[in-house]
Design goal:
The chain is mostly beta strands. The protein has a single domain, classed as 3-layer Sandwich (Rieske Iron-sulfur Protein). The protein is about 0% helix and about 40% strand. Strands 2-3-4-8 form a four-stranded antiparallel β-sheet, with no helix packed on it. Strands 1-10-9 form a three-stranded antiparallel β-sheet, with no helix packed on it. The structure holds FE2/S2 (inorganic) cluster (FES).
Length: about 110
């Protein structure tokens, strides 16, 4: 190993619910960079990298369960990771989000999108 800790299937604290307003995002750096979004009363987590080119989805716009890539505007479904249309063709990996006792946690997955 190169000193990096494998955090697959690890539940990691992200924030208190009240720390994220509707449309906010927090980036968590684990094995990979993960963006945790609040959309209304729901929370979603995806890999923070567009599957088209180098862009952070955390810089995108969140609405109606989707995030729009800031570079070429493909929209990704935050539940499934699937893009709505080109130029992105591959889904982004999603991660389970757990809300418990007023706190938001993300559990990392190794599953390919
Ligand atoms: S980099 Fe995201 S759509 Fe092109």
């Amino acid at each position: 190993m190169n000193g990096a800790q494998d955090t697959t299937n690890t539940e990691v604290f992200v924030a208190r619910v009240e720390d994220l307003d509707d449309g906010d995002v927090i980036v968590v750096q684990l094995d990979t960079r993960i963006a945790v979004f609040r959309d209304g009363d729901e929370f979603f987590a995806v890999d923070d990298r567009c599957t088209h080119q180098e862009a952070y989805l955390s810089d995108g716009f969140v609405e109606d369960g989707t995030v729009e890539c800031p570079l070429h505007a493909s929209c990704f479904d935050l539940r499934t990771g699937r893009p709505s249309g080109p130029p992105a063709l591959q889904p982004v990996r999603t991660h389970p989000v757990i809300v418990r006792d007023g706190s938001v946690f993300v559990r990392t997955t190794a599953e390919a999108p």
